[in-house]
Design goal:
254 residues, alpha/beta, eight-stranded mixed sheet, 8 helices, 8 strands, disordered N terminus
Length: 254
């Protein structure tokens, strides 16, 4: 197995991997350090499900509408997205550069009786192997990589023609600095201090250009906002803090 965190041909940031690996055992604790992701999960899961169903013309009434689709969850962490994607019927490869995260994800999937191909590897290594997927999830990952363009290009290379890619991240705005870092890390304590580096956040315009440079076509972008009164996340026209983009590979970009 390659050393995912130190490979010269990798966009991985070793410090970021060490930070999240130290918290690996807490991935599935809804009140622990990853509590914000647990609260965020229903909104992003519904968004992914609806867009994939629409994009491929699937039967939304089926319990496993993703059956027959190959899906990559890159930067899968403890498997918070890989498991529900598997339950929706997809054949899932969950990849993460942190071996501790992969061990946690594998153990939890086994406990749930779910068959998921978890690997401690990188986007670059998978692309070099010629891996191909119908759906790629790149969720809350890009702000933690060392080389954004290289990472996105690897993802684009692995997307099948007609496939769909999701990217979720944080805007490099003063609002995001105040809410996602000062508020979430220092005041509310939702995340450990130092989880995010504001300088590595990316504006929607920058992400749009980075995705399109890979040859993919951005189809949709939406904000995601948190309501403290209802303690819930929802889709929003406000992309000032959290946002998601959806892209596809057309026949011309094969």
């Amino acid at each position: 197995m390659i050393d995912a965190a130190t490979s010269a041909n990798s966009s991985v940031d070793k410090d970021e991997i060490a930070r999240f690996s130290a918290m690996a055992a807490e991935w599935w604790d809804p009140t622990g350090k990853f509590a914000p992701l647990h609260k965020f999960n229903p909104t992003r899961l519904a968004f992914i499900r609806d867009r994939v169903v629409d994009h491929f013309g699937l039967d939304a009434a089926k319990s496993a509408p993703f059956e027959g689709l190959k899906l990559l969850d890159i930067g899968c962490g403890g498997g918070l997205l890989s498991e529900p994607m598997t339950r929706l019927g997809a054949s899932v490869l969950g990849a993460d550069a942190g071996e501790a995260n992969i061990k946690t994800a594998s153990v939890h999937a086994d406990e749930q009786g779910l068959k998921i191909d978890y690997r401690a590897t990188t986007a670059e290594a998978l692309a070099a192997e010629g891996a191909q997927f119908d759906v790629i999830l790149n969720m809350e990952v890009i702000e933690h990589v060392a080389d954004r363009d290289r990472f996105l290009l690897s993802c684009a290379q692995m997307l099948k023609p007609g496939g769909i890619l999701f990217c979720a991240t944080l805007n490099r705005s003063l609002k995001a600095f105040g809410l996602a870092i000062v508020g979430a890390e220092y005041i509310l304590g939702w995340l450990p201090r130092g989880t995010h580096d504001w300088n590595k956040f990316i504006t929607p315009a920058e992400l749009f250009k980075s995705i399109e440079r890979t040859g993919l076509e951005v189809m949709e972008e939406t904000g995601v906002a948190y309501n403290p009164l209802s303690d819930r996340w929802s889709l929003s026209t406000d992309m000032g803090v959290n946002y998601m983009m959806v892209a596809t590979k057309t026949a011309q970009t094969q």
